[in-house]
Amino acid sequence: MAELGPVRAEAGELVEVSFTVNGTPATLRLPARVTLSDALRGHLGLTGTHVGCEHGVCGMCTVLVDGEAARACLLFAVQAGGAEITTVEGLGKPGDLHPLQRSFGRNHALQCGFCTPGFLMSSYDLLTTKHGVRPEDLPGELSGVICRCTGYRNIVTAVREVQAEFPDGIPAPGNRATPAAPEPEAAGPVATDIVLPGGAPTIAVEISTGVAVEADRVWTVLDDIHLLARCLPGAELTGDLGGDTYAGRARVSVGPVKLAFQGIARILDHDRASGRMRVLAQGRDTGGAQTQADIVLRTEGAGGTTVLHADAKVYLTGRIAQFGRALAGDISRRMFEQFAAAVAEAASSGHAVPVKPPSALKLMAGTLLRRIRDTLRWGRRRR
Question: For residues 97 and 162, what is the distance between their CA atoms, to the nearest angstrom?
Fold first, then answer.
């Protein structure tokens, strides 16, 4: 793990940190006081690392840092710069589980599952560094992780079984990306192709909202890609790839589903005179979720106000596709409302404050209120 130099970060200032997670390089920009557990869960979508006490007592957040067990809630993400990190997602694949995972399932050592990631990573560390530990010492050696269901007997049995199966050391984690062999020639430019899937989109939405700002002032924001990016909820522009193509990051969080995408966007049409802008975008998170979108943004001025229209076709795969169409539509509408409000603020003040994605509670409340209003309208029409 890299040593921190004499660098001072102001409160709220974003610090860039790079490390390797389950064999995949990752670079994040986040406040210096964000813990490694929050970075893994909230920024990389690796929610298998559980958070219990946040004091380093319960052991739920155990991960491997440079091959050694560490409490992710006690480390700042910036302290892990340059480190090799392995989370429970890297231990085994869905169709090819690690021996520890198979043994936990076989011996009913899962219980509610909340402590399971911590026990898996701690027992892996134990059987790697002390594969000759005596069976009678296993309870004490594993006492650094707390099981809320008091299912210790089955957990110890599962670990003992794997120890007996691999007396000379257990297999390495099996779900880590293998670095590609170096090319004989210098690598080419970053791939910028965006190809939308065929067939119907997962979600198709048409959204309109008004802002109390003249259309010309709205377009001063739409003309400035850096200012525009800061108006997008959870988004961050990270690079200009040329040819009206840009690299960026985006975070989506709805209840237990937390995703952090890295991807590209290309502006195909940008016509202030006709009030039309078209963008293609695609992104992928470390867990394999992928999103692609074809978005047309139009402005319609009316006196001192502007109506923003967005027509979006969105294609989803992976965990993000767990969102139902109705919920995904509600999320899209709420985020567009946030975007429009941020554009209005930027058009008025000349700067934009980064917009956080809507919280799960606000989304649920907004969805419930919208459904109630729709039901009441339907009831009045029936009378």
Answer: 13
- Asked if 260 contacts 333 with a C-beta cutoff of 8 angstroms, the reply is no
Tokens of 30: 């986040």
Which candidate, 292, 230, 231, places its Cα nearest to that of 263?
292
> Which residue ranges form the domains of the chain, and what is each CATH number?
18-165 (3.10.20.30), 203-382 (3.30.530.20)
* pLDDT tier for residue 241 given thresholds of 50, 70 and 90: confident
User: Is 50 exceeded by the pLDDT of residue 182?
Assistant: no
- Residues found in the chain: 383
Which is nearest to 280 in space by CA: 253, 249, 314, 239?
314
Q: Which amino acid is at 91?
A: L
What residue type is 18 in one-letter code?
S
Residue 145: name the closest of 127, 163, 170, 120 by CA: 120
Q: What is the crossing angle of helices 116-129 and 99-106, to 10°?
A: 130
In angstroms, the CA 213 to CA 110 distance is 56
Yes or no: say if 158 and 107 are a contact pair by the CB < 8 Å rule: yes
- Which structure tokens are listed for 137? 């010492």
**CB-CB contact of 222 with 230 (8 Å):** no
Give the pTM: 0.52
CB count within 10 Å of CB 96 equals 10
What distances in angstroms separate CA 301 from CA 269, 273, 321, 328, 351, one per listed residue? Answer: 19, 12, 35, 28, 22
Residue-level pLDDT at 379 = 56
> Which of 347, 356, 83 is closest to 217 using CA atoms?
347
Q: What is the reported pLDDT for 353?
A: 61
Q: What six digits make up the tokens of 93?
A: 């694949």
Dihedral sign from CA coordinates of 245, 247, 248, 254: positive
Q: Whole-angstrom Cα distance, residue 273 to residue 236?
A: 27
CA distances from 300 to 214, 227, 304, 336 (A): 10, 20, 11, 16
* H or E element that contains 142: none
